[in-house]
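INSTRUCTION: Work out how this chain folds

Fields: amino acid sequence; protein backbone structure tokens

Chain under study, with its fold:
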Amino acid sequence: MSEAITDNIERMKKSVSALKDDLNTIRTGRASASLFDKIRVDYYGDKSPLTQVATVSIPEARLVVIQPWDKGLIGEIEKAIQKSELSLNPSNDGKVIRIAIPPLTEERRKELVKQAKASAEQSRVAVRNIRRDGNEELKKLQKDGKMTEDDLKVTEDELQKATDKFIQEINKILEDKEKEILEG
């Protein structure tokens, strides 16, 4: 397999990985520590990821407990969660922050599925753009005499197979996320 193909496959893997990260932050009605991956807390003038300033645990299916390592951060963490797109209402007892995850309404579930579908479509477009760039790169190699026409055809087919595989993976990831959101 040529280096051009390997580079493009790596880029496609990164697109799929970014989709997974993105979908992990979509709330499903169940408690999950990954919901808080994008939350940044003001920590002595620096915006730090929540997971670097506190322990996030899930003691029950619909409860999240956040225990800051520095008790002085409780207010900052609470503010960061309230400002986030998660629509959650944290409460604290001075030591830990508790967040009850309310069940999702049918309307909210449909919005979240739309959001997930949009993210998946962005990933599919990204994978197709990588394929297009790869094909252009291969045609340039052939034009410059660094690749035969037969090699070009074989390599383009390999790139297409990789593209199909990643699109299929994106569709499966989306399908699983939709199920998770709708069954809540």
Notes: The beta strands are 40-43, 46-49, 54-60, 63-68, 91-92, 97-100.
